[in-house]
Amino acid sequence: MTQEIKFLQGNEACLEGALKAGARFYAGYPITPSSEIAEMASQRLPAIGGVFIQMEDELGSMAALVGASMAGAKAFTATSGPGFSLMQENLGLAIMTEAPCVVINVQRSGPSTGLATKPAQADVMQARWGTHGDHAIITLCPTSVQECYDLMIYAFNFSERFRTPVIFLSDEIVGHMREKVVLRDDIPVVDRAFPQCEPNQYKPYKAGDDKVPPMAYFGSEFIFHASSSMHDETGYPNNTSQNADKVIRRLYEKIYDHRDEISITKEFETEDADVLFISFGAAARSAREAVKMLRSGSIKAGLLQINTIWPFPDEKVKRLALRAKVVLVPEMNLGQIINEVIKFSCGTPVFGINKVDSTIITPLEIVNKAKEVLQNA
Amino acid sequence: MPKNIFDYIIEDRLPFFWCEGCGNGIILKSIAQAFADLELEPKNIVVVTGIGCWGKADDYLSTNSLHVTHGRALAAATGVKAVNPNLKVVALMGDGDGVTIGGNHFIHAARRNMDITAIISNNFNYGMTGGQYSGTTPEPSFTATSRYGSVEPPFDICALAKAAGAPYVARATVYHVNLLERYIKNAIQKKGFSVVDVINICPTYYGRFNKLKSPVEMMSWLRDNSTMKLEDGNIYNNRFAIGEFVNEDKLDFSTKYAQLQNNARKLSVQLEQDLSGK
Fold it and tell me: Which residues in chain B have Cβ-Cβ distances shorter than 8 Å to A60?
């Protein structure tokens, strides 16, 4: 099978990946630097029988995704910081009702409306904990245009497989750069599991061993209740403490029990690395270049690139950090993912390389910091 | 073929949890009656609710339902309807849900003309949280957060819906049950965004704070102060204009979007060629 090769922006590749994954519904509110995704979705979705709707705000956009998901569509939206903040409310709704959907956040510089057109990687913890209450979340981070395409397919697959919203945490650099991308066909597309019982036996929140309940859709023979409020397997309210404990733990475990299936990382020259970089998104690109520069100067450097930042790949970090002399974490914020790294660094010293002036961390800045740290080590 | 209210209301879940004298049961019965009269299949109905006393209505229904966050029922309903226009989508909201925290979604669902029926149980206060004032509380009412009398004018839900473009807008009260059933049935049958503003009684809070101490007193208040003659612009101040204010036909979002999809299929090929400079 011939696979199409294109020269695309990261944002455009996100849309291509979404369509390949079977997305048929988009609800959103325009915001820089994500608007290309909405514009392309408005053009492409109706032509293939899908629906694009520009909602009145991001609160409504996220609520509409949940409705669309329950009606059977693979649904997604794209936004940036200020919009992502508004989406937190109904991101929780999607978690609680177990509505598969994908939320793209093309990160920009904050706080608040901040520097609207400039990049940052400062929504790492918001992606993890932005919506209230105990919950688990899956968050994927692309470092290239190709990964925008590939990981969007995985984002939809994970959302369908685990009946959960998945956050696609891009950034302005990856979103707006152009690179070659292969619109590959070799990533299998996953669809939500449809109930196999008799319609009158269906309980929308009764899960099997994998803790993920099969999902019907509105209008099918399987009539169901979905609820934002505490409910039991039937979807109707159940306010006992035993039930609350069971539900909250299952929502958490259905993701954390499957973290091996969800975790995507890439390693570059880590086998013998004295200097281990751990990074994600745009910063990981510079780190990868820094590895080459240091290696050419006979410093053994390597990179662990984290594509699935939530759940955090703690075992992998432990294993690699144990072997390294120092760990450096470049990220375009004042220190977010570094706190996770420190938890699992097994005593190896960890240093941040942080930048919040809305420009990218350069490979040279990373190289210089690595040399400085090595000298003092 | 379903034909009575217990094809939609789960008898085993009764009695309702609402306070004695609350009119929500009357509204829910009217809705179930409309479903039965129209012989709608429960599997083709999606009831979307928000948060509040009335937001618990879906607990008693055997149709599909989606119980969402406070104020977002219409936004979630928009997603359901956009994906499957064949579903009968009914949003149940209180005055807080519908036109206060959810006001933005309300006017835009009306503007967009989504084929959704919004049935607002309007009891002039937030009953679930203890009787605080809402966006429809008459001025100057006494509530848990307006002990000196509220100084904010209320929204007239029907005027708001009409201005925002809804093709069906009506108001009834829980006292005028025949009218209520008829309007709800008309609203559900309307292709397009339909609104029924149902003046409801909250003896527990609004009544108690405002010298209407019993359900009977509140029902009498509705009976004595409702009129079908009052012009638009009334704002609930002890005069309730009831009736059908708008009943017109215009193309709903899904009908127009289906046409757009047809056009897009043809045009996208051309657009793609234009963009690539071929």
Answer: 72, 74-75, 78, 104-105, 108
